[in-house]
Design goal:
With 336 residues, the protein is α/β, with parallel strands linked by helices. The chain has helices at 12-23, 40-49, 63-72, 87-92, 94-114, 150-168, 202-210, 238-253, 271-282, 306-311, 320-334; strands spanning 3-7, 27-32, 54-57, 75-80, 119-125, 173-179, 181-183, 217-220, 232-233, 235-237, 257-263, 269-270, 288-291, 300-301. A seven-stranded parallel β-sheet has the order 3-2-1-4-5-6-11, with helices on both faces. Strands 12-9-14 form a three-stranded mixed β-sheet. It is globular. The protein binds UDP-4-deoxy-4-formamido-beta-L-arabinopyranose. UDP-4-deoxy-4-formamido-beta-L-arabinopyranose binds at residues 85, 87, 125, 127, 179, 181, 200-202, 205, 217-220, 231, 233, 271, 294, 297, 301.
Length: 336
Amino acid sequence: MADILITGGCGYIGSHTAVEFINSGMDIVIVDNFSNSDRSVLGRLQQITGKRIRFYECDAADPQAMEKVFSENRISAVIHFAGFKAVGESVKKPLAYYRNNIDSTLTLLELMKKHNCYNFIFSSSATVYGESKDMKPFTENDEAGKCSNPYGRTKYMIEEILRDAANADDNLSVVLLRYFNPIGAHESGLIGENPVGIPNNLMPFITQVAVGKLPKLRVFGNDYPTPDGSCIRDYIHVADLAAGHMSALLYAENHTGCEVFNLGTGKGTSVLEMVETFRRVNDVELPYEIADRREGDVPYCVADPTKANKVLLWECKKTLDDMCRDSWRWQKNCIA
Ligand code: WQD
């Protein structure tokens, strides 16, 4: 049976996608260099699925190492998660972001051509959309590319590289998945988001405050043009996001060309609404204070997921309560 290569498969979204694919009966190969993930995830993936996982510790941008992966397996599709993804860090280290995120993609495309592999699913991001002018959900036809940071620009540039590659090769099938705000964790509590150091993102910061690892949440601004003044985002459960990759792979295997899809719920949640939901669902204290706005934040970023719903036949199943409950279970396991 053909193998699915998952780069960055020990990371947050990669590991949940690996579980989804294995539980669907697929044979996967994981590549990870642990630059932003933990080696222990491999054992936990095997614990969740009951399957041994073929794994290579290497950099997805390393041509020699990746040649070994392709020549030792029958790779029929690549799900490409491996990449640096911290917005703030990308401003400080733009060259490292361009080198790492773009080189890994070019290395994979060259090896795919050499080894007759024609399906490529790319982990893109809603950050390519920039600021919503009219506070309406983004569709895939909305303008992209006016990114506010080098991280977002790498995502957009890679989308353009993949479009050009698909235009030049009639056999190539590319699906670009623009994620909105992934949160939550696998129901087992064995895998989840485990940021190194102080979290940048909202949910891991909330769970670390709730568990007492951090003293207080700072809400970055309550003077935005939104109903309660705090920023609105489209939070999507990582399990729904993983299922979206399965739908995207099935689509890629039956089409050629390059297609882009938003993966979000279509529902907006403010920071203050998230705080209240988390407190209610988990019955925990969550001290917070209103702080200054964070540079680069936009007031509103919500998906219109209609295209993915209709074309990929994919729908989100998990609720915000599920996301808060599963994030909390994972955090409590983390410190256990
Ligand atoms: C969400 C909201 C903050 C932390 C980023 C990347 C995006 C994607 C998802 C990779 C914002 C507020 C946050 C805190 C807060 N990553 N917040 N206090 O910025 O929407 O998106 O992560 O693809 O590319 O840009 O996510 O979780 O950082 O912030 O008030 O301590 O929570 O201001 O309104 P964001 P986030």
